[in-house]
Design goal:
The chain is α/β, with parallel strands linked by helices. The chain has nine helices and eleven strands. The longest helix is centred in the last third of the chain and has 20 residues. The protein is globular. Bound molecules: nicotinamide-adenine-dinucleotide.
Length: 281
């Protein structure tokens, strides 16, 4: 029976620590979140981010733009936030409405305020293993969970299913920088089950329910479930067939309560760190 990797309680510890350290600062860190349109999942995520930021003692400002917002409006808001001394972190909530391309905006955020770590400068620094100002929150949270449970990364086979710019690709760099042998699988991969079965650390980030079944998991592997899927009854679940995989894995993250809360904790940690950086602390 696998040990459950409790992202919820680890995230609370991290958030408490940030709150304590923030209370000692002269000035509050400032996090701004830009939400465009009415995507219901995005609205829930943004509310939660605001709540956690306030709880940590930050200033938290949510800018809501209508679904019809123009490219110019968004660029002008980003420019204002780049120049606002009280703002340390700027987060553009994705996905954007169809008429807006995220890559027209992500590279306009000041890299030193790029709290999500999606700016090409930060992506490049991550690729080069040269101290990005911020590292994408979900991959960073996964590494923190692996470290917390003392799961060895160096020399291990890590398989990531999913190659998105926000999860799979940056996570592959973090694992490589920690000396894992990394394989990225995706929707066009052949023999996925053979590849997955070779993983000491198996991470699934596809959004497909039951992507990871017991028969494709190596005995004793650490299985990290990034997927967030709402089933027909409105209940959250992940990519992994948790009930069966837990019998064979060595470690496993639940959904909810695994990677999700770690992502938010890392967002607060990134905001705090950017505040220190920008204030020379
Ligand atoms: P995405 O849609 O951008 O990418 C999905 C990836 O999965 C693609 O690379 C695709 O090639 C791969 N894929 C899809 N079907 C596959 C299949 N049958 N076999 C192999 N690979 C397949 O997704 P994303 O933005 O990276 O998000 C993935 C999931 O993770 C979603 O459920 C999302 O909600 C969730 N997510 C969770 C968190 C969190 O904090 N827990 C953060 C980000 C994303």
């Amino acid at each position: 029976m696998a040990e459950i990797m409790d992202g919820k309680s680890l995230s609370l510890k991290i958030l408490d620590d940030i709150k304590e350290k923030t209370a000692l600062l002269k000035k509050r860190p400032g996090l701004s979140v830009i939400l465009i349109g009415n995507n219901p999942a995005s609205s829930i995520y943004v509310k939660n981010k605001e709540k956690q930021a306030l709880n940590a003692g930050f200033n938290s400002i949510v800018y809501k733009l209508p679904e019809t917002a123009s490219k110019g409006e968004l660029l002008s808001l980003i420019n204002n936030l780049n120049n606002d001394e009280d703002i340390d972190g700027i987060l553009l909530q994705l996905p954007l409405p169809k008429h807006l391309n995220p890559y027209d905006f992500l590279d306009k955020i000041d890299p030193k305020k790029d709290v999500d770590g999606f700016h090409p400068v930060n992506a490049g620094k991550l690729l080069l293993n040269e101290n990005p100002y911020a590292v994408p929150c979900t991959p960073k949270g996964i590494i923190r969970l692996l470290d917390e449970y003392k799961i060895q990364i160096e020399g291990k086979n890590a398989v990531i299913i999913g190659r998105s710019n926000i999860v799979g690709k940056p996570l592959s760099m973090l694992l490589l920088n920690k000396n894992a042998t990394v394989t990225i699988a995706h929707s066009k991969t052949k023999n996925l089950s053979e590849i997955a079965k070779n993983a000491d650390i198996l991470i699934s980030a596809t959004g497909c329910a039951d992507m990871v079944t017991k028969d494709i998991v190596k005995e004793g592997a650490a299985v990290i479930d990034v997927g967030i899927i709402r089933d027909e009854n409105g209940k959250l679940r992940g990519d992994v067939d948790f009930n069966n995989v837990k019998d064979i894995a060595g470690f496993i993250t639940p959904v909810p309560g695994g990677v999700g809360p770690m992502t938010i904790a890392m967002l607060m940690e990134n905001t705090y760190k950017l505040h220190l950086l920008r204030n020379g602390l």
